[in-house]
Design brief:
Number of domains: 2
Number of strands: 0
Distance between the termini: 55 Å
Structural class: mainly alpha
Low-confidence stretches: none
Helix content: over 70%
Length: about 240
């Protein structure tokens, strides 16, 4: 059954179908309907990215030490929280990675929360979006590990402390790190999809009390899943850049 086309997706499909088909062709894919290559989760992701850029573009020239505004206070709380978590999980090097942790947290959180607005849906309830975020985390922590220890020294840790154990340890390590992609993807996707479906069911049954309760639950789950995603990213980075003892 084809998905319901959101208004923003309809705009993309009406005015930018060529760009959508070209983008799919670059990765070796093609749309089932070339006239409508854009999917809801892709267009809403673009909107989320533009929204975050607009918010920070608005906030940056208004930053003030003497008279901080409400928006500045909110983001200072978010920064202090993530900075504290990074220092606790990663250690004294945590500050170097806060920008990435903050980016992934805010992106996932905004993607989660935008589904509360009736005209939109959470892109994180479509598997490609959590997978894309998981791939970003996977590439980031491995690149940071290589940067910290050097390419060959970082890869050497996958073979174990004793060369003779390499044939055993290497497959185990590869499977373990690959499982992180699956874990990050399934956790975020399953929770957001389930929350969305529960909310829609109760919206169909009643239009006041129950939906409000489950929408509140949806907000709580949105924050929780964004935090868990960022926290796991911190744990993986911590393991990649940790000094050998």
């Amino acid at each position: 059954m084809p998905e319901h086309e959101l208004w923003i997706t309809a705009l993309f499909n009406s005015y930018l179908p060529g760009i959508g088909n070209a983008a799919l062709a670059l990765v070796g894919l093609h749309a089932e309907n070339p006239a409508k290559p854009w999917a809801n989760y892709i267009t809403v992701q673009f909107l989320v990215a533009l929204l975050l850029v607009a918010v920070f573009a608005y906030l940056k020239p208004r930053l003030s030490v003497d008279r901080p505004g409400t928006l500045q206070h909110i983001f200072e709380v978010v920064y202090d929280f993530l900075r504290g978590q990074a220092d606790e999980v990663v250690g004294h090097k945590g500050l170097h990675f806060v920008a990435f942790f903050g980016t992934i947290f805010l992106f996932v959180l905004t993607c989660n929360l935008i589904g509360i607005i009736p005209a939109f849906e959470s892109p994180t309830m479509s598997p490609p979006v959590p997978l894309g975020c998981a791939v970003a985390v996977f590439l980031y922590y491995n690149l940071m590990g290589m940067k910290e220890h050097g390419f060959f020294k970082y890869l050497a840790q996958f073979t174990g402390p004793v060369p003779a154990m390499a044939p055993l340890m290497l497959p185990i390590e590869i499977i373990s790190h690959s499982a992180r992609l699956l874990s990050l993807t399934v956790r975020l996707y399953a929770n957001m999809y389930a929350g969305e479906q529960v909310t829609l069911v109760f919206l169909g049954l009643t239009y006041l009390v129950a939906p409000a309760i489950f929408m509140g639950l949806h907000v709580f789950v949105s924050f929780l899943q964004a935090f868990v995603f960022a926290l796991l990213a911190m744990i993986y980075v911590s393991g990649a850049v940790a000094e050998e003892h």
